[in-house]
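Repro:
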Amino acid sequence: MNVHRQTARALHQEHQANLELLDRVEAALGRVAPGAWRSAIAPGRELPKLFAALEFQLARDVERHFAFEEAELFPRLVESGDGDIAALLSSEHEAIRDLASEMLPLANAAAASSLDEVGWAALSRGASELTERQVSHIQKEEMALLPMLDDLLDDETDRRLAMEYASA
């Protein structure tokens, strides 16, 4: 991705880190044989560590990222006449937030190696849905939102927003 604004680069880097984590979680889940979930989430195994990282990402990074876009970038899109993309991305944020709130206690339990069979099934389904929603959402932001920032932000605003975002 060729972006010129610091703000776009910061968001792009987070997108890439998010995609990498989701890919690792999905691959690890795919390696769990049917009925072997208990041993897969045993202390010291790969999945508890991955779900601890996912829990952190859902609890902190998703909300921080979404709140920044909604407060600082989407209003600028609306002002520039691109309110449709802002509305679409906002609606996707809400769906992802809802899913994240369902996933947080499950990811926490997996990180603590304390899931039951029902929780494992919900976690597996939720992780798959989260991956699908996040990948689709990130693709939209990468193709639409981030390139628009070159025109939406002047140099001074870009520097200020990038610093604010980095310190949030």
